[in-house]
Design brief:
Blueprint: E1 4-9, H1 18-28, E2 36-40, E3 50-54, H2 61-69, E4 76-81, E5 85-86, H3 92-105, E6 109-111, E7 120-121, E8 128-130, E9 144-147, H4 148-154, H5 161-171, E10 179-182, E11 196-197, E12 201-202, E13 205-206, H6 208-217, H7 231-237, H8 241-257, H9 259-269, E14 271-275, E15 288-290, H10 291-312, H11 340-356, E16 361-364, H12 368-374, E17 380-384, E18 395-399, E19 412-418, H13 437-448, E20 449-461, E21 465-467, E22 471-473, H14 476-481, E23 487-494, E24 500-501, E25 515-522
Parallel strand pairs: 1-2, 1-4, 2-3, 6-10, 16-17, 16-19, 17-18, 19-20
Antiparallel strand pairs: 4-9, 5-11, 6-9, 7-8, 8-10, 12-13, 14-15, 20-25, 21-22, 23-24, 23-25
Helix pairs in contact: 7-8, 8-9
């Protein structure tokens, strides 16, 4: 009996990838001993050694794969995507050895690419490592050997490929240390697995690597059905210089789309410890402004003096005294200015609480105005390490630490924490320094969330970095991985231009400079 079947999960919209896929299989794995099945909606794959599994109009990635698995009955699956194109001969005997290891050790999964690398050594094979239970992307959809029944059990109808990688990871923990990966060899992540182009399509566009592959291999491809990446996209993915170029490309684009937003960002970047001389009579504590902002206000000061004189000359005008003047020079704008992150985030979170109408809600250190607004329709307990002195019906302030919330495990049904956890461990609010502050805060929020409960979380997302001591910016997919016991049920975002998208894909914001991710999590009811 055949132990393994190759399944290539695809659909008709990606049929333009099939010639490159088939070429790689034919040229670099001609002795493949396993049946090869390509999943499509209605189209046939014109290749003699590849059978087409037509699954009809099923829309989601997971539903198509589930339908294919129901028609393939081998105990093991070698999984590929349609834009993984082989680039070197496959060592069939090595693949067979891995299958025997899976059978002997009752394994669930062996990934054939060391990205990310496994964290623990495997006692049974020096080429393999164990993917720790708390590792991210444990269910990565790179080329891998799967136990078919495990893959079927982990799939949830309606999930996209990225959702499966993120949300399938915590589901995989019930299978213990049975998820393995090949190790890298001399920093080569492909060495003990298979060499392949990953991927031919990025964000719906042909990669430059795909075009080079077609030219080098002599594959007739139709590159006219989708846009193509440029050298600039390749360059931006490179380290250091490319990353800097990507940031400046974003800034120039922001200047063209939203000049006011660009100036706001510039002022933040150029902030220096110049006291705000123009507002010295107002109470701002340690507030500082940029040189640009200060001189911009100075330019408006003559207009202030003219208006002062004009006002004094009007009938019934009270006598003005210089000692009473309080110049406000930056609010005569054509439109009302607002902070897009906080405005949209607070509105989004309030709408979610209003939709659920819990008996009570716990907020941890979000904006005070947000928590006070919620208490108009739901009792709110507001927790902050700096207790607030407010007496208001339905509002219950409580001194507490985000890293040690005063609740038992799995006891809070409705919980929010907006623009907070990115600050933890940076000392900005007098808290102890901790490089893992965000992760520790996430795990504490996860600990107290009740089964079926709702956690609303907001924080900066984009290119990973620490803006000491103000905040961190996290990769949006890393944030999901911080909550392995929870399930992401909704995601909204505010992009770098200040535009709000109520239903978004976290992966689309990974290259942002300073976007806002709005996450809704729940704890599954077991």
């Amino acid at each position: 009996m055949t132990q393994v079947a190759v399944i290539i999960n695809s659909f008709d919209g990606f049929s333009d990838c099939w010639p490159g896929l088939i070429h790689g299989l034919t040229k670099y794995w001609p002795d493949c001993p396993y049946p090869i099945h390509l999943v499509s909606n209605f189209k046939d794959c014109d290749a003699g050694d590849v059978s087409t599994l037509k699954v009809g109009d099923l829309a989601s990635w997971s539903e198509r794969l589930l339908a294919a698995l129901s028609r393939v009955h081998t105990p093991y699956i070698l999984f590929l995507q349609e834009d993984y194109w082989l680039t070197s001969p496959v060592d069939t005997e090595r693949v067979e050895e891995y299958v025997r290891v899976m059978e002997r050790d009752d394994l669930s999964y062996i990934r054939l690419l060391a990205v990310p690398p496994p964290g623990l050594d495997s006692p049974s094979d020096p080429r393999l490592g164990i993917i720790a239970r708390d590792s991210g992307y444990r269910t990565s959809t790179q080329i891998a050997l799967w136990r078919r029944e495990v893959l079927s059990e982990l799939l949830v109808p309606g999930e996209s490929v990225w959702q499966f990688e993120l949300e399938g990871t915590p589901r995989s923990r019930r299978y213990g240390d049975t998820f393995l990966s090949v190790k890298a060899h001399d920093d080569d992540p492909y060495y003990w697995g298979m060499y392949y182009l990953c991927t031919a399509v990025n964000a719906g566009r042909w990669s430059r690597a795909a075009k080079r592959y077609a030219e080098t291999e002599g594959v007739a491809m139709d590159f006219g059905q989708r846009r193509s990446e440029t050298w600039w996209d390749d360059f931006k993915r490179s380290r250091r210089v490319g990353a800097a170029a990507r940031i400046w490309q974003h800034r120039v684009g922001l200047l063209a789309r939203n000049p006011k937003g660009f100036l706001h960002k510039t002022r933040q970047r150029l902030a220096d410890p110049l006291p705000d001389l123009l507002r010295a009579t107002r109470t701002y504590g340690s507030r500082v402004v940029s040189v640009h902002a200060a001189f911009g206000a100075l330019r408006r000061y003559p207009s202030f003096l003219r208006e002062r004189r004009a006002f004094q000359s009007l009938d019934n005008a009270a006598r003005l005294r210089l000692a009473d003047d309080l110049p406000v020079l930056d609010e005569a704008t054509a439109t009302t200015q607002f902070d897009a992150h906080y405005t949209y985030l607070d509105g989004w979170a309030a709408s979610r609480v209003a939709a659920v109408r819990p008996r009570g809600h716990v907020d941890v250190a979000s904006r005070l105005s947000f928590a006070v607004g919620l208490c108009a329709f739901v009792p709110v307990t507001f927790i902050d390490r700096r207790p607030v002195q407010i007496e208001l019906d339905g509002f219950h302030p409580l001194a507490g630490d985000l890293l040690e919330l005063p609740y038992p495990d799995r006891s809070v049904a409705s919980l929010s924490c907006l623009h907070v956890i990115e600050h933890v461990g940076l000392g900005r609010y007098g808290d102890p320094l901790d490089p893992l502050g965000t992760l520790r805060a996430a795990r504490e929020l996860q600990r107290v969330l009740a089964p079926g409960g709702m956690l609303l979380l907001g924080l900066p997302v984009g290119q990973r970095r620490v803006r000491f001591n103000a905040h961190r910016v996290h990769d949006p997919l890393d944030v999901v991985a911080m909550f392995p016991e929870l399930r992401l049920v909704g995601f909204a975002a505010v992009d770098d231009a200040g535009r709000f998208t109520p239903a978004a894909d976290p992966a689309d914001y990974a290259q942002s400079e300073y976007a806002c991710g709005c996450y809704e999590f729940t704890r599954p009811v077991s």
